[in-house]
Amino acid sequence: TTQIVAGNDAAIEDFPFIAVVEGRAKRQDPWKHYCSAVIISETMLVTSAACIRGPKVNRRVKCGLENFSDKNIQIRTIKHSKIHPHYNWNVKDEFGVQFDNNIAVIELHSPLNFGPKCQSISYTTIKGCGGFKNCQISGWGFIDDNKTETETLQFADISVISNAECNDLVDPKVPKRQICTYDNKKQPCNGDAGGPLTCEINGRRVLVGVFGWLYDCDAKNPTFYTHVAYYTSFIEKWTGITGIP
Asked: What is the pTM of this model?
């Protein structure tokens, strides 16, 4: 999982669209925090492909969770999950990772009950990064490179940079279907995978990206998100939920 380095404690009412994905290999095993997902309807969530790939395990979703000790939360089991068909974990780039098409959707067995602590967010259909303002990241990942864990939801204000700017900082080049954030102090860390990058567009906060990967947690390099606007047909096909311009 990924966490926020140099972030601040968050109120779940400000980020009601973020959910925890937990997993366990066997029924007798304790549930463990795997990653995050983003709620786009009462039964549908968007996350990273890396969040739900791998060995078959029992998984569940928690909504309305601010601190891992919270009791008054909603728990739902997963009915279906669908990884993008062109995501191929066996194909590695120069970094030794596969980060293109790193997106998946989750369908719950029963709907969430929406309220102040559990709510959906619309996703953008605007490609590129022009006009994105007041962007934020959130999650429960490690808060430093020493793998210090947090029990409380973290958030940080973050700057989105163009892919051209991103390409000046990294090599090889970043696929256009990725969106980059950069801050020399703040960024996600392990445990935040699948979590939201949200921005204000035309005065409305929307989902722009889901956290995909990063070099490390020391904030010297950009962080990479799957740009949801390039995957609207995939999301619509499997969830029936359309984005907004």
From this structure: 0.88
Write out the two tokens for 194: 């699948």
Least Cα distance to 153 among 170, 171, 136, 168 occurs for 136
Greater model confidence, 227 or 129: 227
Listing DSSP states for 42-90 in one string gives SSEEEE-HHHH-SS--EEEEEES-SBTT--S-EEEEEEEEEE-TT--TT
- Min mean pLDDT across 44-58, 101-115, 225-239 is at 44-58
Render pLDDT for 207-225 as a digit per residue (tens, 0 to 9).
999 988 766 665 567 788 8
Residue 14 Rama label (left phi>0; alpha psi -120 to 50; beta) = alpha
> Residue 50 and residue 99: Cα distance in Å, rounded?
9
217 shares its domain with 138: yes
Q: Which of 20-29, 144-153, 173-182 has the largest mean confidence?
A: 20-29
The CA dihedral of 35, 45, 23, 150, to the nearest 10 degrees, is 30
* Residue linked to tokens 């990294």: 170
Q: Which residues on adjacent β-strands are paired with residue 35?
A: 21
pLDDT at 2: 42
Residue 218: give its domain's CATH number: 2.40.10.10
Q: Does residue 136 fall inside a structural domain? A: yes
Same domain, 62 and 26: yes
**Distance of alpha carbon 192 from alpha carbon 143, whole angstroms:** 10
Contact 192, 141 (CB under 8 A): yes
